[in-house]
Every structure is written in C-alpha cells, then in structure tokens.
Amino acid sequence: MSDSRLLYLNENSRKFAGFNKENSPFVILGLPMDITSSYRPGSRFAPSAIREASQYIEFYSLRADEDMGEIGFNDAGDVVMHPSNVEENVKRIRSVASYFAEKGKILISIGGEHTVSIGTVLGTNADCVISFDAHLDLREEYMGYRYDHACVMRRLSEEGIKIMEIGNRAISREEIQYANSSGIRFITTNEVNIIGIREVAKRVINFTKECSRIYLSYDMDSIDPSYAPGVATPEPEGLSPTTILDTVKLFIDRRIVAFDVVEVSPSYDPSGITSVLGSKLILETSALIRSKLL
Ligand SMILES: [Mn+2]
C-alpha cells in the first residue's frame, strides 16, 4: 500500500474479530479522535476497546442468516490523528476513506467522536446519510467552533448531502428550524415508539429513493444508556439495540457504501458492555449488508 493517501494510516492495530482478510469487501478503520467531546471524553480509546470486545463475538448472524466468518474483515488499522487539529484530522480521515472507497470496499469506521463522520462521509462520496443519534448535530457552531461533534450533520448538509436522522430526543429549537428549512428529516425516539419500525423503515426507503450511495451512522448515544452506558453524552429514553437493528434490516440494501460506530467512551464503560454492543452492531450490520450483496 504505497498510495500517498495512506501516509497517516497506522496498520499496527489489533485486528477486528481477529481478521485481516485483504480480499474481504469490508474494511475496518479506527478513528481515535475525541478533541471536541463536551462531557465525557475518551472515545479515542474506543477503536481499541471495540476491537478487544470483538475477539469474543460469534460470526454467525441469525438476523441476516449470514456467517461473517466466511468472508471476514480487512482491518486496515487506525488513522493517525493530530492531538488538537480537528480540521486536519477530518482531512486525513477523508483521504484514507477515499482510498478504500475507490477500491469498492465497504468502509466500517470506529470512532472517535461523531466529527470523524464528516471525513468518512465525504471520503466515501456518499450522497445520503441515515444517522441514529440522540442529538441532531445540526448546530451552526458550538461554543465558537464549526468543526465540533454537535455540528456534524450541519456541515454535511452544507455539502449538499441528504440527511435523515432517527432516535433523536435532545434537540434545540435552532436545530429543528434548520432541519425544517433544509429538508433534513428526523424521527424522534418517541415517534419511533409510536409508529413502529415498519413505518420508520418505510419512511427511510421513501427518503432514499433518489440516493445512490448511502452512509449509515450509529452514534451510540442513540441507544438507551441502560444498554450503552459508556458514551460521551448519555441521554435517557433511548432506543433499544434490537429496535435499531431490526429497523436497519427492513431498509438496508446494496447502496450502503459505509457505516460507522461512534461516541463510545471506554473510561465510562467499566463493564465493557458498550464496546461489546459496538462490536455486535458492526457484526450484525455487515452481515445484513452482505445478505444484500449476493
Ligand atoms: Mn449524539
């Protein structure tokens, strides 16, 4: 691998679920950045914690009827991050992501704070994002900074990317106004519980009619803190992981080019259960994607 875009790729990580299969369509990339976390920092340690948890998962997905042990993952390692320059890191992430996207790989990135998704969405050339998140991340700026975990979807929307968000419950009025004026759709946690997953999936399918490259983002704080306590910004009244995965199963198709798991903060996850769930989301989602590739 001598492409100049890989200058900031450190291949020496532990490998996800023990896999390093170069020919797998799934590339794992660790994005250890947590510069803008406002409450409980430490998500830079999540790629390593989630890889650790992944050593003990089963490869067969009942939900997808797929055995991921058959094709495995190509764990490419971590992007090396600058300790304080968010924009520089987003550039590095974008560049590494574009390398794997051009090879036709499906990129699975492990954050890191949600800001890393700006790099992976742009790098994989996605035109639509479906994001599970307690927050909308639609702020123009957060405490003076435009490249911040609270502004991720706003920056992407400004790039012309179509955005739909699910599982939201910690929202500002400014964000609702921006969403309404810019065509961003969101389904709150409360609405998900009322309308049910079939209707949620129907709305996603409807929303993605014009999309050709779909990116899926799992901010772990979309999940209820009883299942995922170790996140940077916990928010009560969340979705269950089963609700999320069963919804994804209903709308997922071949147009998914990448997905991420972000915002796990291992220092606040003493039992390790949030990292176990992160690795399970990766396994189940890639199995669901694979079931559509064949
Ligand atoms: Mn969030």
TrEMBL record:
Cofactor: Mn(2+)
Alphabetical list of InterPro entries matching this protein: Agmatinase-rel, Ureohydrolase, Ureohydrolase_dom_sf, Ureohydrolase_Mn_BS
Name of protein: Agmatinase
Keyword annotations from UniProtKB, A to Z: Hydrolase, Manganese, Metal-binding
Presence of keyword Hydrolase: yes
Endpoints of the signal sequence: none
Family: Belongs to the arginase family. Agmatinase subfamily.
